[in-house]
Amino acid sequence: EAAEVGFWVHPDHRGRGVAHASLSLASTLIQRSGLTRLTARTVPENLGAQRVLERAGFTRGARARSMAPSGEEVLLLHYSREIRPSAPLP
How far is the C-alpha of 66 from the C-alpha of 76, rounded, in Å? Predict the structure, then answer.
């Protein structure tokens, strides 16, 4: 079982650990929910997101074309991170 996470940080707040903190919180919630994998996707041009994901323990997987909300077809990098389940949420 997996959940997908995504993030966007306003330019005024980039480089302050906001994305990393949000991934850490998401990992904790996923861990307590009983799911075992967290996934994410980003475009190849977004080097900042790739760095954040890799520092948070995500592994880059396949590249695949997908439809963006704008309707255009884009190339996406897929990432995943295995999560060990812990005590369930009440």
Answer: 7
